User: Fold these one by one.
Assistant:
Number 1:
Amino acid sequence: MSMTPVEAIRSLLDSGRPLILDGGLGGELDTRGYDISSPLWSAALIASEPEAIVTLHRDYLDAGAQCITTSSYQASVTGLQALGMNPGEVEKLFKLSVELACRARDEYLRENPGCEFRPLVAASVGPYGAYLADGSEYRGNYGLDDARLREFHQQRLRWLDDSGADLLACETMPDLQELRVLAGLLQSVSTPAWVSFCCRDADHLHDGNGFTRALELFVDHERVFALGANCCPPALIEPLIANIVAANSGKLIVVYPNSGQQYDADGKHWHGDSELQHWSQQAEAWFAAGAGLIGGCCSVGPAHIRELAARKSWHC
């Protein structure tokens, strides 16, 4: 009998190795010359440049990633319908994001028949702030009521839950109110999910609420198998892990920081000094501290994932 995705991850961790995640999608596609300047960011390429997305997924797999995340982060029903898509077309685009990742995974497995671990596909569920395309995932505090947030997330969660993805990646979540709504909606999914928070420091979400309050929403959540943080500087990861461990949730821990640079929402680019010089070495400390799923976010590309996957300590 084959293992479930979560059982497969736990088995890998029991062998003394982390699950290696992929890196960023939008920024990497930008460096490859694709236009991601629209409010949909990389999601705009799902229909217009599907081969570019498949190629990038495949590059991450070839680099050693054992879990790839779909290009649906910035996709939303509201945003896609504003471009003239009807509901059927919107649903197809969400599911196509998963199909592209699965296709890259299937191609990889055909060419690597002796692969020890069957790579997983995680369907990305971004925050409401991603739809706004103005950097709101680094602020939170959207000024909406619960009903509006529920409406925003509900339909796309249903589609992605029914898409054939192995996991749901609810990521870059900066807002406690949104997280309360999401916790309720996740009670109804059948696909195991991780929830990854977007934090201003080790103790606070970007909306100013305490990190511990956010963790408490999911400590006993039956559909959430992992908690963590992403799109924060690498230097924040260890103290964030310590706070997750202190919550005593029994959940796995997922971390995938960005390069440590700052995002310019007006210019839609990252600037400042990168903290990736010793990133893969830092990842060993994250693993020792309790993180089991480790990868990268914005400005982290296939070369960084290759370096991470090649760490000798993972292969002892």
Number 2:
Amino acid sequence: MFRKTKSLVGLDIGSSAVKAVELRPAGKGYRVAAFAVEPVPPDSIVDGAIIDAGAVADAIRRIFEGNKAFKAKDVCASLSGNAVIVKKITLPVMTASELDDSISWEAEQYIPFDIQDVNLDYQILDPGTGPDSRGSMDVLLVAAKKEKIGDYTGVIAQAGLTPVVVDVDAFALQNAYEANYGLDAREVVVLMNAGASAININILQGDQSVFTRDISLGGNAYTEAVQRELGLPFEAAEQLKKGIPVDGATYEEA
């Protein structure tokens, strides 16, 4: 996203809300030109899967119709969950062209889906050409189900926008961190993105991701705990969780 000369909108399609931000170059960095959040109806997205595409597309459309500061129509999005596989694998040392030719065959051994049903990408972490090499190379393999990618690009297109990039949540978080703070080869950094229904974790060593994990636990679990303990409706419990006072009458009626 940050290497594009064309203006793009970053779109976070979450289980509780859709968030959008448009950045524009400003000096050596970027400035926020537009930002908006629009809630989505409950259960429209469950475990990262879009259940009600119409409701999600409507939420995206409302963001752009309600905020004229958004100028770009090209959109970057990201996804996570059990339809996305991120795995570090070890392969015999080979050239970049040889790896490109064989990556699909190599991936079949590590991907629990039909290889025809996923989009594959990879990055060489260690080419295995150093003095300590043992004839093997480390490769970061990423696979995402085409069906899930299609669901996300479909709701974006349904909202009248053009999906141009679909990333993985953990790596989108890494890109944002790098753009804002840079990366230090001497540091180990833990990045966490806590959402309503999931937490994305990405541990970096220098500029390399050494561990990623999506945890199916998020803010809704805490809201539901408050709801059970105090006998409140979900919306009131959500307000309390955020530190927003709840009307006394609403509390008593619950």
Number 3:
Amino acid sequence: MTVEHAERSVGGGYWPSGWPIECGGNHRPKTALGRGPDLRPTDRLVATTRHTGRWPVMFVRRDPGELYLHGNSLGDGPAAAAWVERVDPSTLATVDRSGDLPTGDHEWCGSIAVHANGDLYMVSGSHLHRLDPGCAVVRSRALPVDQAHNGLLILGDGSIVTKDLRLRSEPSTVTVLDPDLEVLTTIALPEPSMGRLAAVPSDRGTYRSGGEDLYLPGTTRVFRLRWDGRALELDDGWQPTYRSADRGGLAWDPAVVDGRVWLHDNGNTPGVEHRFSASPTPRVTPGPVGDPPPPPWSEPVRLIGVAVDDPADQLVICPTELPGGWVIAPPLASGGVAVTWDTGNSGLAAFDVSPGPDGEVRGEMLWFQPFRSSMQPVLYADTGELVTNDFRYLENGTTSDDLVVLDLATGRMKARVATGAVRPNGMFLTPGWDRDLYYCTFETVARVRVESL
């Protein structure tokens, strides 16, 4: 593998890397800074696959050629555990490994990020760990709330923010820590929260005096918190309702793009409900590959876009309008186009969400593909290529979770490749350095690269 360009930073408190955090930045743009696959008719995609037997969650990049993988146990062993590896970016072989790290016996997908100080910060279950670039543990601590945490962001001042995941009953808690893992503050939300955090500089929202705005969904409302470097404050004037308590499902992570907070509802599938039916979260060993149980709701999946400057301004779009839809990953929005999907009913669609001459957003469909997409996609802005997964049942009775590359403007499929995985989930894609990218799902990771014929 060659590295043809210098790293560009996503900014804030991160190491100068093109992908030091999940989704490529705190506002979750899922948009790569570097060169895309740039597929030509004489190119094809090739996958290098490694079967881990565990639960890989995401890759992040540090310096050119430094690739890190974070994951969890998967239903095996005496206690749940997390781990971090530095892997060879071409072969995916392990170079350095942390060993198993405590999670409070919670088994759930956490997060990892590369701090501006050069160290790695990883949250898993109810524990936060700081590791050096060789994957040696610098410091670990149990978080104030003994619950699985899902997501971690590094703010512009270098502080670390995370939150616990809950589906009902008790409210979730947001915790801010300094780089030495000392707790700076906590705040309880008005509701439980399933989705992860997103954050933007506060001048993109209604606050104008500095700091950052944090966005996250509850069970019925979307909330905004302000971080001023010392305290978290709940914005009482921005709490738009995205669902009623008796209709549809809960929202996953938001993305803050083009002046709106975008999110999917219908996310607390029976599998997620089982995971959070007890604390610590039950250990789950994957069974035979097949369709999961249907959700308890009849409503279709909805893409919801709430204006950051006017919580009453809400755009609602259904990717399929079919009943009983569900998703396990949040949408993508970029430059007036929103990409949304319905995993349960197999449909991926793009919509024009740019304002018309009269200022109205009509949400017209640009294209549709009958793909069973489930994971966090990546958009290459320089080439206009969208990469996501498509889970398929094959004629020989087996299954394959493929990666597909689409033209964002038209939806035309430019290439497809089998990743070597047979089981999909809602994990993360990570752009590489050389027309390649990295993939995670249960028990399997893969590197997908372009090869010229």
